[in-house]
Every structure is written in C-alpha cells, then in structure tokens.
Amino acid sequence: MSNTADLNLLTHTLKEGAQAMGLTLSDAQIDKLMAYQALLAKWNKVYNLTALRDPAQMVTHHLLDSLSAMSAFAGARRVLDVGAGGGLPGIVLAIWAAEAQPQMQITLVDTVQKKTAFLNQVKAQLHLSNVTVLHARVEQLPVEQQYDVITSRAFAELKDFVTWSNHLLQQGGQYIALKGVLPQEEIDRLPAGWTVRQVQPLQVPGLDAERHLIFMERTT
Description:
Helix 5 links the parallel strand 2 and strand 3. The protein has seven helices and seven strands; from the N terminus they run H-H-H-E-H-E-H-E-E-H-E-H-E-E. The chain has a seven-stranded mixed β-sheet with strand order 3-2-1-4-5-7-6, sandwiched between helices. The chain is of the alpha/beta class.
C-alpha cells in the first residue's frame, strides 16, 4: 500500500462489507486478510495471479466475494479447492476457518507451479497450519484422502469440475461451486448421477454483479 490512509480505507471497506454480510471477523482475521491482499498485489506484478490491479477492487472482488460464501462451509472438516489459483476462495476460507471452524483442513490444488509457489508463500507468512498446497492435476490425484466438500471459483464448467474430481468426494459429500451469473446451461449439462441440491444467490457489498453458490451432490 502507498500509505497508511489507503490501508485504513481498505481495512474499513473489508470490515464494513463483512458486517453487512453478517460475518463477524476478529482483528487477527482482518489483519491476515489484509496481509494476504498485500501479498497478492505484490506477487501479481510478476506472476499475473489476477487481472485486477487496484487494491480496492481486490478487497471487494476477491476478499468480500470469497467471504460471502463462508457460511456455506459451516461444519465442513476436509475441503478441497480445485484450481485454487491465487487462493480464492481457499486462502480466505482458511483465514476465516482458523478461528470460526478450527476443525477444518483446506487443501488447495493447482496445475500452475508459480501459483502453488505463491500459495506456499502465503501459507508460510500467514502461519496457516490448516492449509495443504498441491501442485497437480486434480484428475490425477490419488484417493489417499477424500473430502466432504469440494469447491472452486471460476475454475471450469460444472460437468468438468465434477467429472475430474468426483473420485475425491467422500460418500455423502457435496460440491460448492462459486459462480457469477446463474449457469443454467452448465447445470443442464451435469452428468448422470449428479444433481443440484440448491442454488444460493449472494449479495457482495460493493460488487454490482450477480453471484451464486451452486450446491451439487450424488443422486446414487
């Protein structure tokens, strides 16, 4: 950040936005989220982790956008974030869950080495002991452990998301996909044996765009 005033404004935007969504964040959580945003902005200059360059947009379009989905993960124990990229929603989820859901472990998988290098740096600097980072293709991950929730944000079409990763979903588990405009055509193309259990519209403060959570589960 260029100066303290800018940082204070961004922090205020984050706090106010979280409160508007009914999320109570501790000072420690706010500090870690802002530290993550700063790392994302710094590494983005070299690694092109996100198309956004404006720190204020990063707070609304990335931090608050990911935070809007947090209540959907209540009670989850093992979460897999597929195509984790710069850590959205996985890193935000980990920062939130460390206090709100301490039993939760989050695994982030991405095929791009520079992105997993960034994620490992964030894990180390922010002391996120609930995070595991894997550099791999999700469809090639062995079933060493399964997950009760598999999530993604802007990763792939729903049918590909499910097809590539369903061997890692435990029996009775669910998918939570973070999407923009309601992807009805993608829902219609889901493979046999899968159904959308719920579609939840999201309201993200400061973001004038449609957002939806798509919850999917096995039908057999």
